[in-house]
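FAQ
Q: What does a multi-component entry look like?
A: The components come first, one per line:
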Amino acid sequence: MSHIQDITKPEHLVYRKTPLLTDNIMHYCPGCTHGVVHKLVGEVIEELNIQDQAIGVSPVGCSVLAYNYLDIDWAQAAHGRAPAVATGISRLHPEKYVFTYQGDGDLASIGCAEIMHACSRGENIVVIFINNAIYGMTGGQMAPTTLLGQVTATTPYGRDPKLNGFPMKITELLAQLDGTCYVTRQSADTPGAVRKAKNAIKKAFQNTRLRKGTSFVEIVGTCNSGWKMTPVDANTWMRENMFPKYPLGDIKDI
Amino acid sequence: MAKFKGAIVVDNEKCKGCGLCVVACPTKVIELNPNVNGKGYHYAWMKNPDDCIGCASCGLVCPDSVISVYKMSVQS
Ligand SMILES: Cc1ncc(C[n+]2csc(CCOP(=O)(O)OP(=O)(O)O)c2C)c(N)n1
Ligand code: SF4
Ligand code: SF4
Ligand code: SF4
Ligand SMILES: [Mg+2]
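Then the predicted structure of the entire assembly, as tokens:
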């Protein structure tokens, strides 16, 4: 029998919080996907050893305060405009690793034009897109990515295509544009999915070094508060309902 | 034959009791503690520490990065 104290020695440490994350307690609800993805971005920046060369642009949405959690340089953009701000930064500092971090309301709704044109121009940036099918921050209103039938604060009887239109597969649309070099859709709900998502984010940052154009990583995630479920149930609901509409895997890789 | 023993350390005060680590653990080591932390969350703890294999599945899925995982090989 080994005692716990014999195991928890520094030389046996195999997993710990990346030092790229600050000690600030994240304001996210318990179980929110944003926390997992922040960590993955931090781990990638740590492994690529680019802490002083990475510049993030945070959105409007729950992740507006991302700059409190990842210990790198940040700018904070007006709602949906992160790709435009990132364009300016990356053109002025072509040697830096510039990325945006955006929700589905921010990216696919108010910022639809900015992301389209940044991807069309092939700006040498990374886009991390958190699709939780809802406006989390403002209390759970319908987003462009909200599923048909999904109940939100503004679709209390479920999203009706006649009234509310259809869910938008923005990631597939962006893959059509010549400026994108890598477009992928991942999740972060299981240990295996977390490993894959991290590899995708790493590849995206490596593409910046190779100056290949825009790398776009969608993470299908949960907003358990907005969906009004426990975090564990939200992951199950996501797998059953979101994955069929938003299938995981690489969409483009050139 | 070399076998592995694992253990986790949870930052109790920063854990939000979301339960994602509980379902991620393949050997059912973790449960939410009946006690609560300063924020009122039932924090994660090793209910069955002998079964931990140090696989880090719990750490990978933790949104708040509050789990450290240790692993050592033992001879059986
Ligand atoms: C110009 C402008 N319009 C509207 C808002 C209100 N608003 C804040 S966050 C948000 C949507 C956020 O949803 P999403 O981008 O999906 O992020 P999440 O919180 O779900 O991560 C909206 C509409 C705003 N802050 N500014
Ligand atoms: S409202 Fe939703 S997206 Fe925002 S922190 Fe809570 S769970 Fe996450
Ligand atoms: S996943 Fe993290 S925050 Fe959630 S219960 Fe486990 S240790 Fe606590
Ligand atoms: S390291 Fe693996 S076995 Fe140990 S508690 Fe975490 S998930 Fe369970
Ligand atoms: Mg959202």
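Q: Is there any commentary attached?
A: Sometimes. For this entry: The longest strand of chain B covers residues 2-10.
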